[in-house]
Description:
There is one protein chain. The protein has an eight-stranded mixed sheet with strand order 1-2-4-3-5-6-9-10, sandwiched between helices. A two-stranded antiparallel ribbon has the order 7-8. The chain starts with a strand and ends in a 14-residue tail after the last helix. The protein contains eleven helices and ten strands. The chain is globular. By secondary structure, it is α/β, with parallel strands linked by helices. Strand 5, helix 3 and strand 6 (119-123) form a beta-alpha-beta unit. Helix 3 crosses helix 8 (205-214).
Amino acid sequence: MERLEFKGSKGLILAADAYGDPLAPPVLMFPGGGQTRRSWQRTAEALAARHCRPIAVDLRGRGESAWADDGDYSIDAMADDVACVVRALDTPPVVFGASIGGVAATIALGEDRLLAVEALVLVDIVPRIRDDGVEKIRDFMRSGLDGFDSPEEAARKVTEYLPHRPPRTGESLAANLRQAADGRWYWHWDPAFQANAQERRESGLFGRMDSAAKSISIPVLLVTGGRSEVVDEAAARAFVASLHDGRWSTVADAAHMVAGDANTPFAAAILQFLEGLPAHRADAGARH
């Protein structure tokens, strides 16, 4: 694994991890709002083993990426971050986006037709989402704003929230936590990111996502969790039907955080999709 940095919108520094052969076809991976780039690690390792170059990027204000001094966590800023990273690559990538990372990626690609991208993979996000599921996620994220006494306390909270997953340990959450001067442990994100969530929603980001998606002509794969609290079957089918070249795959035993819930079937679904793309076929030389 290689540590990289990119300059996002207005020069904000974005932290990234790259896996595998630097000359292999690149795959850019943007996580969800409650995740860091490490959420992609097992998926990235599986892709690297199949001759891809996965590059997992922390969203602004998340993980080890810089916090926005001006407090700008708008969807415009995040979409511009995606565009900046795409332009920094020498080869057109496949772009992955989970949750809010998927919204930003869709808007970036749909509103800037000059961005050179092979394909788009969206993970459990569509323009018409379930409000009750989103509120459940926001409640969990808000519950950690006051911090935790220890990483073990944070792990217990995660296990309570995700009872279908194996119990987490404090050690396994180390990359997602930071210890502040008051001695308490906080999620590794800028609190302003979460504070801007309602503002982003009211800005009409899902309407923009819907319009942008209809402008995308490259192949798009939507992967949803069969137990998702955010995306239901009707919304997934409607979204895929609205795309120029849309496909849909469901991971039966996963909820909203699909890759973390069931990485093996998730990786299998995306590898099958990637192997159908010209840049990922061993005998192909042409790119989109």
